[in-house]
Specification:
The structure is a single chain. By secondary structure, the chain is mainly beta. The chain has one domain: Porin (Beta Barrel). Helices cover about 10% and strands about 60% of the residues. The protein has one helix and 15 strands; from the N terminus they run αβββββββββββββββ. It is elongated. It starts with a helix and ends with a strand.
Length: about 200
Amino acid sequence: MKRSTVVLAASLFAAVTAAPAALAQDSSWLVRVRASHLSPADKSDPVGGVGPANRVSVESRTIPEFDISYFFSPNLAAELVLTVPQKHEVMLDGAAIGSFRHLPPTLLAQYRFDPVGQFTPYLGAGVNYTRISSVHLLNGAGGLEHHSAGLALQAGVDFTLDKHWSLNLDVKRINIRSDVTVSGAVASAVKIDPTLVSLGVGYRF
């Protein structure tokens, strides 16, 4: 083999193996906007400690989502998931009893498979903090805890369109818990624990 051929092959190999590192250095940030359908688990203890469980439920709805990811390497990233305060109706035995708003920022660590391929699946795990506000239940007699912190799990895939743009499919499961109170006394412990299925578009800098 000619020396020039060996040099060319070695140069191509070096360029290919260096590409992921260069991509990580040049494109450390990814932002996305997504539409997320939130489906609560609707698990609750018997109201007042008697009768059947799961009488308290929270409406499903589609919400806007914005997230920012930072890449520490081609495979490892951190993602901060944000939205605006969302209003949800609360039902007891299917009848509306009021509403509340919640703001649920979530921070996740991700491992990304095949980071240089057109399809990039990933798994993530992290924590969620939810702030509950504007609670109006049972004409003012009912209430909810104002804070919830819990585990968040994630799975998704990015489909690369070009150097900057991508499409995204994402599924998250988030632990959100709250006690329902009536006249200051705990009436039921509620596990909202929503599953979020999201579709969106991303731009990588």
